[in-house]
Amino acid sequence: MSSPLPSSPAASVLDLAPVVPVVVVDDLADAVPLARALVAGGLPAIEVTLRTPVALDAIRAIAGEVPGAVVGAGTVITPGQVGDVVAAGARFLVSPGWTDLLLEAMRASGVPFLPGVSTTSEVVALLERGVREMKFFPAEAAGGTAYLKALAAPLPQARFCPTGGITPGSAPEYLALPNVGCVGGSWMLPKDAVADRDWGRVERLAREAAGLSAGGTCR
Predict the structure, then answer these.
(1) pLDDT tens digits, residue range 24-38?
(2) Is the whole model's pTM more than 0.85, yes or no?
(3) What beta strand segments (E) does 3-103 contain?
(4) Residues carrying an active site annotation
(5) What pathway does this protein act in (predicted)?
């Protein structure tokens, strides 16, 4: 992570909440009420993925209209996207993987970033470049908690936000690991709840996720 989050008491997005919602916005009208429900439920860090045509506008709307939200951009895969999302109001960046060009652009942006890794060599390469906070993706497919546990002893300086296939049941197992700061997931955003615009349900699920910790007890 390159720098503290602006106007945030936490020095890292990994420390804002135990879960970072991974959000795909298909309808721009949903962006603000969805984000308000997540924040009300105790999940202020919101990763809006660049997978839909309205993603940039969604980031801009959340940044401008949802007090308390720390909106970030996910699925950042090109240097050009970095400038676009920061201009739209993104306060952190998340990539599924990284290259030196992408890493250079993210570092130059001045906002925190989580480059994606799935192998030990990628972790070592990022540590060599001064990056200690990373996204572990796709978490379940890449080895899950067993893989991260194996990395903790030789590479204790690396911290992760595992994302990909994580559920409310498996999240506490990840959060129990010393090298995991938070997890990413979308289970608090069921497709039917979003389709029905049932923001009360989203808020309830977000509150449950915000209470997760190692062992499944509330923090």
Answers:
(1) 999 999 999 999 999
(2) yes
(3) 19-23, 45-49, 70-74, 93-94
(4) 47, 135
(5) Carbohydrate acid metabolism; 2-dehydro-3-deoxy-D-gluconate degradation; D-glyceraldehyde 3-phosphate and pyruvate from 2-dehydro-3-deoxy-D-gluconate: step 2/2
